[in-house]
Fold each of these.
Amino acid sequence: MNVICMKWGAKYGPEYVNRLRSMVARHLPAPHRFVCFTEDAEGIDASVEVAPLPEVRLPDGLPERGWRKLGTFHAPLPAPAGPLEGPTLFLDLDLVIVADLTPFFEHPGEFLIIRDYKAFRSRKERYVGNSSVYRFEAGAWPDIVSEFERDFEMIRKRFRNEQEYLSWHVHSRGKLVHWPAAWCRSFKRDCMWKGPLGLVRVPRIPEGARIIVFHGHPHPDEAIAGKSGSWKRALRPTPWVAEHWR
């Protein structure tokens, strides 16, 4: 049983890795490995197994679209305590865990991902996932990386980002399963109140939620401070984010 994350560049500091490790330790009682793939281990807690970023061949200057996440599908996927084996749960660094993670390892399926939060998609694109939380069998999907590197120019033109390509690849093989909708909720879509209610009501944790996903603004620290990141959305300071994000 593995939980993994990735940190590259300057967007997130080591404190994000350490918070995520702490949340996972509180909410996953079964023995597990926690591995962070990064090019900079400074400041990361000793309880985290730190491994080099898996290589994904990308052109210099490519806009950030999450393509490096595809490196998690290398076979083998090396780490200090040995190559990863078995069920592997990927978590983004900026999410907040609010309940037991055990069901994420029990739910049936070979590849599981959040159904994307985008409000409007064509019928043929409704399979697309949000890759903040996905589970796979370590080493079982090396063709995700090899086909991406081989057909990069075509893939870049057809897919806006890594999660669209990843979802298409797995869906086209009939293996894509979405998590139960209640488990991974969007902070700005499912927790914040709409319209004037946002001025007077603190965001709530939806019933059945296990992970709160922060995509775009606000970030967790902004939610704690009551800064929505947009004049269109009112946001009260949200103390429960601070309670769980530690």
Amino acid sequence: MTPLHAQHIVPASSSTKIRLSLLATALVDALGGPTEFHRRFSFPPVTSMIPSSGFGLPKGVWTDDTSMALCLARSIASSNARGIQDGFDEHDQLRAYIAWWTRGELSAVGRCFDIGGTVSRSLSIYSSYVDAKDSLEKIKTEMNHESCSGNGSLMRVLPIGLAYWKSESKARMYARRSSTTTHPNEMCQEACEVWIGAIVKTMQSACPTTTTSTTLPEAPTERNLSKLDLLEYFASFPYRNKDLRDALSCAPPTGLDSSETTDRNTQLEAHYRAHHPILKLIVTTSEEITKRSKRGSNINIADPLNLPSESVLPSSGYVLRTLVAALYCFFVSSTFEDGAILAANLGDDSDTVGAVYAGLAGCWYAGDEATMGEEPGAEKDSLFWSKRVDEWKKDLVRRDLVEKVAEELVEFEARW
């Protein structure tokens, strides 16, 4: 495994990051859809698009994760036409979700074939009230309990980080507010906030700012962000929710020698490998695989057959487990393809874990290079594109719709 401090973000324009992170979401959502609800290791490893027998769908169909993310993206992007300059409108977001749920708008197959229980209940509440303000308050009251701690708001929140990346405070605030439309539970709100904070830091590090932008970054992240820097962000975040804090935080090391940056990074990563829950799991898994392997140290921890068991890395619809599983896939791999395959082979809620992973990984790995198939050999130095990823792209159903909404968000972000 390549050290985290040696893995740096790929610089690119914000438009490229927006286009490819939304495309990535749809790709890994569709890749992981067929293994949803299956036990880990109960199916052959999935590395290409296959049909989803559970819903009787052909290969390449993305699910509610992508549909709801597109709903949110379009709501933000179309706000000027409704006279909302800043783009954020909870009521319009809910109306967009209802249009997808009842009429199949922004669905890969023209209908809603799957929806989470908390989402459907919240949309039902909103639909039953004449006064929209009253209905939103009812959702916040009725759905704000521990049993509503699913991943339905986390899976769709990506567009907020892509649209508002120049203002971390605003993006984090909107991330929390976007969760309250269906998942007002504090854990769900904070999961969305911390995730969008990571997207913002990634965008601020990777994307050059232009003089034509109306909003300049509040405090741009240091250029050449490393995965170790991103892990440090998650480890030091001031969590209010105890479960999130226990799963993602880690006390900083004491007596760290900062005289040389390289030495400091090596020491810090060693500290996290010994103490951070996710890095500790990666280390433990690698050690166990090495013991079992006849090849000694020549093992690939990013092989889906080398995933940890469900007991130590659950991938259920519980928002905390989805978040941890997505981060495991991100930190244990060094290319978009490797992490995507890991996520798709988790089973259980693999499509959602994959969609969440892909949003961050798309922001991280996407570069301004040509895609496969358009320029032979373009994949050579790309951490995002590969022959396999290009095949996923070719197999993706209604890719045109994903790309259309992405362009709408690109236009909004350029104006903002």
Amino acid sequence: MVKKQAPKKNPSKKDKQTSSADPIPPVDPQILIHQQRILKLFSDAFNPVLSSEDFTARLQSIKQALFNREFDTAFGTEENLQAYAARWSPTRALCYSSIFQTIAHHFDEMALTSPPPTNNDDYDENSPDAASIETSDSKPRKSIKMLCIGGCAAEQIAFASLLHQTNSSGHLTLLDAAPWTQVVALLQNHIASPPLLSKYASAAIKAANTPLLEQAQLETTFSQGDILALDKEALSSLLGREPLTVTLMFTLNELYTNGGIGKTTKFLKLLGEVMPDGSMLLVVDSPGSYSEAAVGKEQKKYPMQWLLDHTLIDPRAPSPGYEWEKIESHDSIWFRLPDGLSYPIQLENMRYQMHLYQRKSTSPTQ
């Protein structure tokens, strides 16, 4: 069963020295504005829990439950889910957004074309005014499809960020063992609503205040369940027939650890069998020794990346009808929050490994 844990907060002393010595590179002002907009979306959505008197105590309770692997306790109430999302999802959302941007050209290869939005009922495409005025909103948009396994708030906002920055539309499916339905609906509402403004905001600011996405620009579906329990038919139905990106972000190592290497390997093999041709698999997780799984009675530890490559691209065990191509791989990357960002509580930098694979058919019938 997929369960998310709080991010690891204590890197080794060597990591700390390395991270403090490396300067934060300059950030494009427009990216900084966009990142602040994402943080404001989180602070607006979760303002009640962020400002509650028991917020700190609730976070401690969640962390203790996660440490004890008491996942039903950690994620058993709506208040806990919102507190978790308010505390740990903002940094991850910004990090995932930056990852999506760096691989956006791969999304373009799979993107379909969707019709332009038709929010204006009075609009007549045959009128003289329509013929003389062409805007980006009147053009067909690229449509991006994604399935995030073991994810919710951070993935949802990061995907919305991608659509905003690329002026695309998209369909997002989120699958997790925890009951995130209400959090997904809450964030979806804030994604499609203008940010909250101060009552002292100027007329110009109010006039320019628009939602991150249009209502019809993002279709989001949440499904609660255990990905390792799905059979071939159920997984195929979840994926659909069109090329898409499947993500396992800070999830795969949990699957190896909690679900077992055998079940997780079987799932990855099944995923390759039923994914539409040209689809991609994006894996993001903690780097190095933080992502290891024990095998056998002797509990010999293997790196997550080694297990993943052994399953997907080992030439000694080819898969009938398809193959995986690793198109990007990074063992350790820092995501650092730039100076100038504001959020009600302190957020930390994060480090991750990232691997991107593409499924390619080797069968002439596909």
